[in-house]
Design goal:
With 336 residues, this protein is α/β, with parallel strands linked by helices. It has two domains: 169 residues, Quinone Oxidoreductase, Chain A, domain 1 (Alpha-Beta Complex); 138 residues, NAD(P)-binding Rossmann-like Domain (Rossmann fold, 3-Layer(aba) Sandwich), CATH 3.40.50. The protein contains ten helices and 15 strands. Strands 3, 4, 5, 6, 7, 14 and 15 form a seven-stranded mixed β-sheet that branches. Strands 10-9-8-11-12-13 form a six-stranded parallel β-sheet, with helices on both faces. A two-stranded antiparallel sheet has the order 1-2. α3 packs across α4 and α6 packs parallel to α7. The longest helix has 15 residues. It is globular. GO terms for molecular function: oxidoreductase activity. It comes from Enterobacillus tribolii. InterPro entries: ADH-like_C, ADH-like_N, ER, GroES-like_sf, NAD(P)-bd_dom_sf, Zinc_ADH-like.
Length: 336
């Protein structure tokens, strides 16, 4: 089977494309899945580049979608031919997260889904949304579930709320879609006038170009009539956090889901207290969260925004395109 593995030297240019042994038949409680598509996340590129250290030879990619080819004894949730999608935290079924970090995350601490076939415990998957392609489904485990947990599970979003998204990456675009589905009003930042036009066409109420408006938090505050937003889906970390705080309403919610600008920095703690903000760090979600999200997707007309699809053999080119920042929504791989 073809597979993409972490090389002995970290870096997307050192990813190894190799043939690996077929995983064979499933044992008790396992299923054999033909993986057809993966989606790229910044977590994946951080593993590939060695920012998140992993073992050489590790199968890459946390997100995998495909079809069940064999079912082991004792499996009752899945049947032959079912379309399925992986979990970012395969050991987190429900309740509180069982551990910190990524030691049990596929494509990081465990082998991922950058290959054509896997045999894994059935509990490591959920059913795919009805009628979705495998490429569409592959966008869900990391980006979509992060946005879902930020707004729906933790944020308890409701109609009439104001939501701020930063940029046009996968998490932000799913947050836009979930917010509109809930009847909320969405505001956005971007560095591109072309992307700003695209966002407005999607139903965003207003966009601020953060390059021409460095104090974009104050601008969002003005655009909301001085009230501020109820929810900020914060992907940047220390470089954007002060402006997100400025944009939030008194008593608002900021969910930190990314640290693209770094992991350390100065934060205006006095303003956080003065505004009585709720701030929560979120890393994806549980199997129950994913099942609930897919149930909601089956009841909606949401479909993921997929910018570009690369064959698995072009995984380095896919990561290079991701780094360029030219994409809107998700970038995917296909092994089919």
């Amino acid at each position: 089977m073809k597979a993409a593995k972490l090389g002995a030297t970290p870096g997307i240019n050192y990813i190894e494309l190799a043939d690996i042994q077929d995983p064979g038949q499933p044992a008790y409680g396992e299923i054999r899945v033909r993986i057809i598509s993966n989606s790229l996340n910044y977590h994946d590129i951080n593993v590939a580049n060695g920012v998140l250290p992993s073992n050489p030879g590790r199968l890459l990619m946390s997100d995998g979608a495909g079809v069940v080819e064999e079912v082991g004894e004792g499996v009752t949730d899945f049947n032959l031919g079912d379309n399925v999608v992986s979990l970012f935290f395969p050991d987190w079924s429900d309740g509180e997260a069982p551990l910190a970090g990524f030691s049990r995350t596929p494509g990081d601490g465990l082998d991922g889904y950058a290959t054509s076939h896997v045999v894994r415990p059935a509990s490591w998957f959920t059913h795919a949304p009805e009628g979705w392609t495998h490429t569409e489904t592959a966008t869900l485990p990391t980006a979509a579930l992060t946005a879902w947990r930020a707004l729906v599970v933790n944020g308890q979003i409701k109609a009439g709320d104001d939501v701020l998204i930063l940029g046009t990456g996968g998490v932000s675009i799913f947050a836009l879609q979930f917010a509109l589905m809930a009847g909320a009003r969405v505001w956005a930042t971007t560095s591109s006038d072309e992307k700003a036009k695209w966002l407005l066409k999607q139903g965003v109420a207003g966009v601020v170009n953060y390059r021409s408006e460095p104090e974009w938090g104050k601008k969002i505050l003005e655009m909301t009539g001085g009230r501020g937003v109820d929810h900020v889906v914060e992907i940047g970390g220390p470089g954007t956090f002060p402006q997100s705080i400025a944009a939030a309403r008194i008593g608002g919610h900021i969910t930190l889901v990314g640290v693209f600008t770094g992991t350390y920095g100065e934060i205006p703690t006095g303003t956080i207290m003065g505004k009585q903000l709720s701030i929560k760090g979120v890393i994806v979600g549980s199997r129950t969260h994913q099942i609930d999200m897919i149930r909601a997707l089956n009841a909606s007309n949401i479909r993921p925004i997929i910018d570009k699809v690369f064959p698995l053999e072009d995984i380095t080119a896919a990561f290079e395109y991701q780094v360029s920042g030219h994409h809107i929504g998700k970038i995917c791989l296909t092994t089919d």
